[in-house]
Design a protein that fits this description.
The structure holds 2 protein chains of 2 kinds.
Chain A: E1 6-11, H1 14-26, E2 33-35, H2 43-47, H3 54-80, H4 93-119, E3 140-145, H5 151-164, E4 168-173
Antiparallel strand pairs in A: 1-3, 1-4, 2-3
Chain B: H1 10-32, H2 37-67, H3 78-84, H4 87-105, H5 116-121, H6 127-158, H7 161-189, H8 202-227, H9 236-267, H10 270-282, H11 284-301, H12 305-308, H13 311-337, H14 346-368, H15 380-384
Classes of the chains: A alpha+beta, B mainly alpha.
């Protein structure tokens, strides 16, 4: 995609990873991503990720679904094709509620699903970028972007910090 | 971390006893004024059932989390356990009330003028079987609750895996027993008030009401103990989870409420709609306030994650839910049992506060009898480090 280059390094243990992430961030380096074979609790906090906007997307999608679902039925039963069911009024709200509820759930789920796919660059035909095969097994990998304006200094600095933390196989990656 | 033992001292006894005295004064006040006797009995019945629901929710909370082997609940599990200790006492006051006031509450107990519908229901709705069921419920709940509590204290003290497995067995038995008895008990004590009417969803409806109001009471006690300086290890993550429970079960309650309402509205059969006709015409304020307090308010207030993480907002929401479900039980009991003699005044408010005092006394006493944290529970450490990302 772009030419941004990264430095990657391994740790063998999740405790080492946590300590190192803390150390790296204290040194003022930004961490692009951390790849782990299982969820490591507390890592998000250390990485300082801001919270995802996915719940808000879900709420807006759900609200749109509720309004659309309700209005669609209202329009059908009062204007487009009014039918008398058991002497009930045409606009009988209780009977609209189940469909409105389902539309809310459907729209919320789909909006979150597609928002996640688009935002994460996933979806049909997406190529998984595997930095190293070992990370799919038992290694914990840190990915740190290189500052392109001052390439060599940046590499040296990052490598020095990583070596302080006891990282394995520090290397520059495309 | 330093763990203080809960002190059952004047700081908690005096407010509880004051509330209890208020409740007794409310009843005495109602007796000397011209408030009908039926109204006092119906109110006592309402509060008996409502506070028993809190206690049962406490037991259910412990049982369900033990089966699921959840970790986070171990830091607060002494509170629902202590709430469960109210069950035997609730049984005694309920039995006394039924012996003296059964005829004012349940029309089917007037066996000399039963119509055809009630005669057909007589194999189930008769006084002998009613009392047999009553004894079975309270024996089951009381003994299983006692076993859960005692075993949990042993587990917290020793950390022995033997007690952990035993706890799961007791919990499984309790959940199965409770699944059946929560339904039949709600038929006995609530649905049989409108003896001609029936709903197949009723047991679930009461169960959801019990869950959400009990969860609100647990939250309130956790917040109270935190305020008093106990439970320093209960952090915002645990509160977030309690808030999530209240939020989710409020929606669940509304779901069941609507499922019941819509079928009767759609079917439009007179003997079924009479239930809602009564409530929508003579009790319409309670009917709509109930929905606002039990669904709309908690749904909108604690929808955002940030809101669940503010103790003050959680406290306000749990009070709203507790009041809301009191109104729920009010509109379940009053129209069928005493109809136009029902009212809302000092008796209702005072008596409910009195029951709160009584309930709080029981919970605080049970809390003081055991360490506040199960420090050797296998999951206790996990509970301390618990946090959520979503």
């Amino acid at each position: 995609m772009n030419n941004q280059q990264y430095i990657t390094a391994y740790y063998l243990d999740d405790d080492d990873l946590m300590k190192s992430v803390k150390h790296i961030r204290e040194k003022g380096l930004s961490i692009n991503d951390v790849l782990t074979p299982f969820p490591v609790h507390g890592l998000d906090k250390l990485l300082g990720h801001r919270r995802s906007y996915l719940p808000q997307v879900g709420f807006i999608g759900g609200a749109i679904g509720a309004i659309c679902g309700f209005y669609f039925q209202y329009w059908i039963f009062t204007e487009a094709y009014p039918l008398n069911f058991g002497g009930k009024p045409f606009a009988s709200i209780p009977s609209f509620i189940p469909v409105t509820f389902e539309c809310t759930v459907l729209f919320a789920a789909f909006s979150m699903f597609f928002a996640f796919l688009i935002r994460s660059g996933l979806g049909l035909g997406a190529q998984a970028k595997i930095h190293d095969e070992k990370v799919t097994d038992d290694r914990f990998m840190v990915i740190i972007p290189i500052d392109e304006s001052n390439r060599q200094d940046s590499i040296n600095h990052i490598e020095a910090v990583l070596n302080e933390t006891g990282a394995k196989e520090v290397k520059v990656n495309g | 971390m330093e763990h203080k033992q809960f002190q059952f001292n004047n700081k908690v006894i005096i407010p509880s006893v004051l509330l209890l005295i208020l409740g007794i004064l409310a009843v005495i006040g109602a007796l000397v004024t011209d408030i009908p006797r039926e109204r006092i009995i119906a109110n006592l019945h309402l509060n008996n059932v409502y506070f028993l629901a809190f206690a049962l929710c406490g037991l259910f909370f412990v049982a369900v989390h033990s089966i699921a082997e959840s970790g986070w609940h171990t830091s607060i599990q002494r509170i629902p356990e202590a709430m469960g200790m109210f069950v035997p006492f609730a049984g005694i006051i309920m039995l006394v009330l039924f012996i003296f006031g059964k005829h004012d509450l349940f029309h089917w107990t007037h066996t000399d003028h039963l119509d055809e519908v009630l005669l057909h229901k007589q194999p189930y709705l008769n006084s002998t079987f009613f009392y047999i069921r009553f004894v079975v419920y309270f024996l089951g709940w009381g003994l299983l609750g006692y076993a859960l509590r005692k075993n949990s204290l042993l587990l917290g003290e020793t950390g022995d895996i033997k007690y952990f497995n035993k706890q799961r067995t007791f919990s499984a038995i309790f959940v199965v027993f409770f699944a059946i008895t929560s339904s039949t008990a709600s038929w006995d004590w609530l649905m049989s008030i409108d003896a001609h009417w029936f709903s197949t969803l009723y047991g679930w409806y009461i169960f959801s009401s019990l869950l959400v109001s009990g969860m609100a009471v647990i939250t309130l006690f956790v917040l109270l103990l935190r305020r008093m300086g106990y439970l320093p290890h209960v952090n915002i993550e645990h509160l977030n989870d309690l808030g999530r429970y209240m939020f989710a079960f409020s929606i669940f309650w509304m779901y069941l409420w609507f499922s019941q309402y819509m079928l009767y509205w759609y079917g439009n059969i007179p003997e079924e709609t009479v239930y809602y006709y009564e409530r929508l015409n003579n009790f319409e304020n309670y009917f709509f306030i109930n929905i606002i307090l039990c669904f709309a308010a908690p749904f909108l207030i604690i929808m955002l994650r940030q809101m669940k993480r503010i103790p003050f907002v959680l406290g306000i929401t749990s009070v709203i839910i507790i009041v809301g479900h009191w109104v729920d039980f009010y509109q379940l009991i009053m129209p069928g049992s005493i109809g136009d003699k029902a009212g809302f005044g000092m008796l209702e408010i005072g008596l409910t506060l009195g029951y709160f005092g009584l309930f709080a006394l029981f919970v605080f006493r049970a809390l003081s009898k055991a360490p506040l944290v199960p420090k050797n529970h296998p999951f206790y450490k996990e509970s301390l480090e618990y946090h959520t990302n979503y």
